[in-house]
Write a structure and sequence with these properties.
Length: about 375
């Protein structure tokens, strides 16, 4: 399972630009493959939510996932295929490890809840005000496991999301979308690699097909394919903040990197020069910074705080409005689950039709025709 967060050295702000237009990043791809568990986890329990709101319901997590996918599609802009793979039941060799992790996670949560309850009683006895507990559907990350109610509803929500995108987004209308959900055995990256290998064996396969992989760590290197690229996401802002697990996708769209560099260049003389000690820059043992200059820089950035929060609010409202245009139909399908069957995967064709298959092999055969 990959450990993705966000990509690109610089992303052109393209919120209002159609994804059917040429890619402003200068690279065109035919197929985009998403290891969905690398998307689900940061949307389920973000380490630092920039909007100040942690998800508390399945619906909020689903909206975060849809935003995440939208951003990746806007960046890569696949022209033929979008393949989304969710981790299914793991192979036996890894199953024991996963079970151990989940038991440990459940025990840690039990201890944390007991400690919280103890503190609540202690504060009540001391006469301190104790806020009531908020109901939270997504407090336990163990529900991100094949066979749970959360994964069932997520699969239905993704099917509805795919249908809406194929119907309403010009950038999606000419591509095939394959969803391999948690009912298909195997981990996401393994399902993706198996699909790519089998596609290459078909006589109709175009050897010049350009692939873009997201969330696959270094497995893509084993393909020895000149047309395979991987989406990576270590950004200068993450390094500067010392956070190697920075939240995905939002910072580039808010021009955070541009803002930092603009302030740094504009106020360079007022800062007194570089924030690092240039006299000791060649020291191989460690780096040295001038804290007084860093403090000035942080204060200068802080002056933009109101504008930053205002922009974040505008962007979030814009995304929510876009996603809620068809919210009624989405909620009906998620709640009723009427369209869900015992099938394990869904392929949505460019005309909006869907076919369902019990195995990955059937997808590959149909896709190659």
């Amino acid at each position: 399972m990959g450990y993705p967060k966000v990509v690109v050295k610089a992303i052109v702000d393209q919120r209002d630009e159609s994804t059917s237009s040429p890619n402003p990043n200068g690279m065109e791809f035919d197929n985009l493959y998403l290891d969905m568990n690398g998307i689900i986890h940061p949307c389920f329990h973000p380490e630092s939510d920039e909007d100040g709101v942690q998800p508390t319901s399945f619906e909020e997590v689903f909206i975060n996932i849809f935003e995440y996918i939208d951003t990746l599609v806007n960046i890569v802009r696949p022209r033929k295929l979008l393949y989304m793979a969710i981790d299914g039941v793991a192979p036996r060799a890894k199953m024991n490890q996963q079970r151990a992790r989940r038991f440990k996670s459940a025990k840690d949560k039990e201890l944390a809840d007991a400690e919280e309850e103890k503190l609540r009683r202690q504060f009540e006895l001391q006469g301190k005000q104790v806020l009531p507990k908020k109901e939270n559907e997504v407090s336990d990350s163990n529900i991100i496991t094949p066979g749970t109610d959360f994964m069932y509803k997520l699969s239905n929500a993704l099917r509805s999301y795919i249908s809406l995108r194929l119907s309403n987004d010009s950038g999606w209308r000419d591509i095939k979308v394959i969803l391999s959900d948690a009912n298909v055995p195997g981990e996401g990256e393994h399902k993706i690699m198996s699909f790519i290998r089998q596609q290459r064996n078909f006589p109709s396969h175009d050897p010049n097909t350009r692939h873009c992989l997201y969330g696959l760590d270094v497995l893509y290197q084993e393909q020895q394919h000149a047309n395979c690229q991987s989406v990576r996401e270590m950004t200068p802002s993450s390094v500067k903040s010392g956070n190697r697990k920075a939240s995905i996708v939002k910072k580039p769209y808010q021009n955070a990197i541009d803002l930092l560099m603009t302030i740094y260049k504009k106020e360079f003389k007022n800062l007194g020069g570089y924030m690092v000690d240039m006299l000791r820059v060649n020291d191989k043992k460690s780096g040295y910074i001038k804290l007084s200059r860093v403090e000035k820089f942080i204060l200068l950035v802080g002056a933009y705080e109101d504008k930053i929060f205002k922009k974040r609010s505008e962007l979030r409202e814009r995304k929510l409005r876009r996603l809620c245009l068809n919210k009624d139909s989405l909620e009906e399908e998620i709640d009723a689950g009427s369209s869900a069957t015992d099938s394990s995967s869904t392929c949505a064709l460019p005309n909006g039709e869907e076919f369902e298959a019990p195995s990955l092999g059937m997808f590959e055969n149909m896709h190659s025709q």
